[in-house]
Amino acid sequence: MQEYRLLSTSGLLGYGFPEESLKEGIARKPHMIGVDGGSTDPGPHYLGSGKCLNSKMAMKRDIALMLEAALSAKIPMVISSCGGAGGEPHLQAVVDIVREVARENGHRFKLAKIHAEQSKSWVKKKLAEGQIEALKAAPHLDNGAIDRAERIVGMMGPEPFMQALDEGAQVVLAGRSSDPAPWAACATRAQLPPGPAWFAGKVLECGATAALPKGHDCLVATVQEDGVIVEAMNPIRKCTPMSVANHSLHENSSPCYHVEPGGLLDTSECRFDALSDRAVKISGMKWEARPYTVKLEGAELAGYRTITICGTRDPGLLGQWDSYLASVRENIVTKARAFGVEPDQYKLIYRVYGRDGVMGDWEPVKESRSHELGILVEVIGKTQEIANAVLSIARVNTLHVDFPGRLCKEGNMAFPFSPSDIEAGPAYRFSVFHVVKDVDPLSMFPIEYEMV
Amino acid sequence: MAKISEIAQVCKSKNAGPFEVTIDVVFSDKAMFEKVKKTQVLNADLIARLYHVKPSDVLFTVYDAGNAFKATVPRRIPAGDIGDTDVYGAQQHAPLLDVDIPISS
After folding, report:
1. B36 in a structural domain
2. Residue B68: inside a domain
3. How close B100 comes to chain A (CA, Å)?
4. How far apart are CA A367 and CA A359, in angstroms?
5. Residue B103 to chain A, least CA–CA distance (Å)
6. Domains located in chain A, CATH noted
């Protein structure tokens, strides 16, 4: 029976994996080795700022081991959504690490770089043509929003990976990609059907997350005509029918229907059968081809952030928190206005841990019984200077504003740090979360080749 | 009566993209899952009440293959946007823990 084996080393490039697990994975003679590099999960900062989610040191360690293993076994190494957000600076950062590792170890190979950043003029053109639709709960998109975006990436499907491999690339580094796309690309390229190929990708993109205990570790998926077999490479982890079935819940709106570029993966009738006490075969998944769409992600600057952290242990203050805070806020508005900063130039946010710091308006417990409260004071200013100035005056007033029956006359708050004001820099928000229709799966994602 | 926190194996939340949060309740054995399912207490209307969203905005799935219930709702504030309290959406499950299910645990 024809089959194709895929080795995923971890949940994310730079999260690490045990070397023994990699050796065990290579012993299974995989046809490719890869790791997903990205996610929107850590928030909009990375796409907006161009910075990588994980450190260079951590990514380099993972890449060095994977590259050595791939070249020794003469199989391709594929990394998708490089550097986290998969924009141009993120891709370049990973390309630089791969070049550095190759130079240090005398490796030679053909490298493919697949770009995912989209030009604003092209996005505007598609918007004008009515080819862009908002995903659920996404903000309104117009030309102004496109102009404000720091960066817009397209989320590629399997086609650019297939193209790069067809061209003989041994190492493929891609910008923003649908998480399962590189794995689906390799398996469908080997003539296996799309249902099992995409399903394998859905499991592999998270490394050994589908095993028990879950962890950042290696997983092998064997794609067959009628299904997929998954097995964790670390002997401490087991894939069970329930652990794999429940992986379909992870970071998805539905466990049964997964929208991907060019189709829908339907797992509603999947069977999960234990092949041993540590390997599971999944069958019954279906792939329904649909008109090709590509997701777009963009982030824009929301302002500049400065914060301070403090806490109160004063029962008198805890008992009248709301009126105290109203009075502090009033003082801050007056004093900021005095140095020329109007309320529309900043947002002042008090996060009160011990009350509703975690859930905000969703918090069902309305009466805090805590003997102390942790306060995170935050200012988002139109400029960093405004944020710093307003936060500074907010800190002083939070500390010193009087309240009825006040015993703690020297200060209302305990500040753990000096300096207590922490400049956090530019703050971003996701501003584009849309799909673009009627596009060519390849032309949005140009591929460059080089001999390393 | 039994609270979800007393009978579920897993009760968790996480982002499903930056604009939605998804909440999962998983049971370790089929029998308990079936008992809970039969009560019909876990449904889109309950989730809408707990998370202050419209029932039509709740995507609710009874996931038999995983002995699980899943609900996806729009986030209060998009992940990482000004005022967000939980970038990963990993701590929004608590309201479900205290839900009473009319079964004997």
Report:
1. yes
2. yes
3. 15
4. 14
5. 24
6. 3-116+156-290 (no CATH), 300-431 (3.30.70)
- Whether the predicted pLDDT of B26 surpasses 90: yes
Query: Based on the structure, what is the number of domains in chain B?
Result: 1
B1: contact with A, CB 8 A cutoff: no
A75 has pLDDT over 80:
yes
Bridge partners (DSSP) of residue B63 are B68
Q: Which domain holds residue B69?
A: 2-79
| Among candidate residues A283, A229, A216, the one with its CA nearest the CA of residue A12 | A216
Let me know if A401 is exposed, middle or buried by CB neighbors in 10 A (0-12, 13-18, 19+): middle
State whether residue B15 is helix, strand or coil.
Answer: strand
Q: What is the pLDDT of residues A122-132, one digit of tens each?
A: 999 999 999 99
CB contact residues (below 8 A), chain B span 47-86, against chain A: 50-52, 59, 61, 63, 65-68, 70, 72, 74-83, 85-86
A419 prior amide bond cis, ω within 30: yes
User: Is residue B37 helix, strand or coil?
Assistant: helix
Do the domain assignments include residue B86? no
Strand boundaries in B1-105, DSSP class E: 2-3, 10-15, 20-26, 59-63, 68-74, 100-101
CA dihedral (A268, A270, A274, A277) positive or negative: negative
- Show which of residues 416-435 on chain A sit within 8 Å of chain B, judged by CB atoms: 427-430, 433
Mind telling me how many Å the CA of B92 is from chain A's nearest CA? 7
Phi, psi of A121 (to 5 degrees): -65, -35
| CATH of residue B73 | 3.30.70
pTM summary value: 0.95
What residues contact A173, with CB distance under 8 A and at least 6 apart? A79, A82, A91, A94, A95, A98, A111, A112, A113, A114
CA quadruple A367, A368, A369, A372: dihedral, nearest 10: -150
